[in-house]
């Protein structure tokens, strides 16, 4: 098996303005591919600057990407996908929180923007592949089929947020950093050797379209305040909130509960009910999840036939856990070998077979070892 094409390709390199995408584009060009750089203008406010921002969509990021392309010696363009990004990522993010779920906008961006809108446009223009700075590997088997695998360096692996990619998208994806068993400092050193000014640029983090990192404030501006009750497992009121959308399953901080728990131990968010605008809290043990169902499965290859043993990852930087999984009438049923905590509807469950990504699905419901009391 091999993880690199046998012939030079026409490659469209998505350049965010960060060090990873710049080094990925440079490596693709060095490998002999005909590379063109493109920066995606995703911000609804094109005049925004990096001051106070924590993402990768500012005017300065565009300029950083252009300077990197100039150093690499490749053509460079800026493509405006702000409207598509707002519809498929931002509006979806708000709607999911409003419905009491916890979305992952990075997965949605990879699925809908980088490997749908961007890839479709690239193919229409005659490009063979889209290149990004993600840490993951595409393995090409002898029969020509492709598999998505974890990066060589597990500390930087980003295959979880790529678990939404299907066969067609994998066939046109390049991840030049996937085989890099090096530290981020060494990637920065490589960028410096190549003369890329982004070598010392801080990493983007959090949600790119929430510049100050205040997710609750972002949602409040769009959904408005909606006061409701915080209740314990018995249904007794223990506090109030200004919008159930501001909470996630497993949350401990920021609950503003005036009444301590009888045992004096911390309480966590167990359930979010947008119907009656109620948030239920309880002890950590009540978060134990033994199984889940997930919808909208996407497979990085053939869908599993019958029940099987896998490992599952539930968060971008979460640990793997052994599971059994079975697809029944389009719904994925997952059972954990040991209970896990902090599993929220709206998140993605990504299945692995060793280092290979089998596929992903959106968590719809969970089964707990101890179910919280129903609220009315």
UniProtKB/TrEMBL annotation:
Can you tell me which residues bind ATP?
14-21, 40, 133
Entry keyword set: ATP-binding, Cytoplasm, Disulfide bond, Nucleotide-binding, RNA-binding, Transferase, tRNA processing, tRNA-binding
Q: Which Pfam families match?
A: tRNA_Me_trans (PF03054), tRNA_Me_trans_C (PF20258), tRNA_Me_trans_M (PF20259)
Primary enzyme class:
transferase
Compartments annotated for it: namely: Cytoplasm
The record lists the catalysed reaction(s) as:
S-sulfanyl-L-cysteinyl-[protein] + uridine(34) in tRNA + AH2 + ATP = 2-thiouridine(34) in tRNA + L-cysteinyl-[protein] + A + AMP + diphosphate + H(+)
Q: Which InterPro entries match?
A: MnmA-like, MnmA-like_C, MnmA-like_central, MnmA-like_central_sf, Rossmann-like_a/b/a_fold
Domain tRNA-specific 2-thiouridylase MnmA-like C-terminal span(s) in chain numbering: 290-363
Q: Where is this site: Interaction with tRNA?
A: 134, 347
Q: What Enzyme Commission number does this protein have?
A: 2.8.1.13
UniProt GO molecular function: tRNA-uridine 2-sulfurtransferase activity
Q: Where is this region: Interaction with tRNA?
A: 156-158
Annotated tRNA-specific 2-thiouridylase MnmA-like central domain ranges read 217-282
Q: Give the primary localization class.
A: cytoplasm
Active-site residues (renumbered): 109, 208
Q: Which family does it belong to?
A: Belongs to the MnmA/TRMU family.
Task performed by this protein: Catalyzes the 2-thiolation of uridine at the wobble position (U34) of tRNA, leading to the formation of s(2)U34.
How is this protein named in the record?
tRNA-specific 2-thiouridylase MnmA
Question: To which species is this protein native?
Answer: Streptomyces fragilis
